[in-house]
């Protein structure tokens, strides 16, 4: 009883990184279980936003199994959440490639970059847009973003730094910045069009 | 002019701060929407439970595998060692003796082979070996006996020598011409020899004779010798 209590207390005190370290050291499945409970919702949300609920569930399962298999590769300097999301993203891309759903097109960003939104000029309209917007509109607008922009934006909203996002996506920080900026602009444009 | 520029700068600053306020508001709204979006798309509790169950199952499998792994590795290592040893023993081409020895060991390690079970070639081989063994023992005995006889004779007797010669009559009397390379050593007790008188008339001229001498070259006697010639 005392052991369980102390374990729970310790688990609450520790960061995700520490829990992962404990799991690597002790191979005690309890630590991994806690990490699953802590991060599963965010992971699922991130993957589901870029695919579908079914695929997200599949990718999440694969991701956690991979965490178990590759635990020996986890290093002191890693941040657990970033590591987890990197694994999940790679699995998702593999799934896309397998299903021929994802075709990476570098010119896609450039073409979208020309869509410069002048929405900021209409201040009153802009404020109205984001007061009235609901989650359905937001999700619809989000789904209209291309994969790379959506991915970068979602990761930023998850609280990752530019450096971490660039590590996860395997792109330069400047590229990530551009993707996020255009993602936001496109999001505004889509929502305002839908509200008109 | 200056006041106009100041006004412009002030306006720009106001616009800038306006822009940044707008951006902050937008980001805040976006964050809120994202939170709502995450909540709306949150994974089902069953999925989390499924994942945990799957992980536990895999962990259990891995642990069980780890338990048996050392024993399995040990068994495999032993098997490999035995097979390698056998292969090395049987496939050494430059050591036929060892190969034969190895096959002997294999036979001797098995149940003893009775005479009835033995193949014909093996029976024949064994018979020859026994015969050769008996023969070698007999030869050794013979040699031993001969050696003893020889040593007794050698000690008891002084050697005499014989040479083949041709006899001829000259004006000065009888002359012996020794034949080349006809000298022979004869083991005979010189004391037992009776002095023989040489009857020179019996010897035929121009015929071979055998001349006997002692070690000092003293002529002991001469015999007719019809078998040898110079």
UniProtKB/TrEMBL annotation, chain A:
Keyword Transcription included in the entry's annotation: yes
RNA polymerase sigma-70 region domain: residues covered: 35-101
Domain of life: Bacteria
Domain RNA polymerase sigma factor 70 region 4 type per the UniProt entry, residue ranges: 139-187
Keywords: DNA-binding, Sigma factor, Transcription, Transcription regulation
Molecular function via GO: DNA binding; sigma factor activity
GO process annotations (BP): DNA-templated transcription initiation
Keyword Cytoplasm attributed: no
NCBIfam families to which the protein is assigned, alphabetical: sigma70-ECF
Family: Belongs to the sigma-70 factor family. ECF subfamily.
PANTHER family associated with the record: RNA POLYMERASE ECF-TYPE SIGMA FACTO, RNA POLYMERASE SIGMA FACTOR HI_1459-RELATED
Protein name: Uncharacterized protein
Originating species: Catenovulum maritimum
Phylogenetic lineage: Bacteria, Pseudomonadati, Pseudomonadota, Gammaproteobacteria, Alteromonadales
Automatic annotation (TrEMBL), chain B:
Region (Disordered) residue spans: 1-21
Native organism: Catenovulum maritimum
Record protein name field: Uncharacterized protein
Lineage: superkingdom: Bacteria
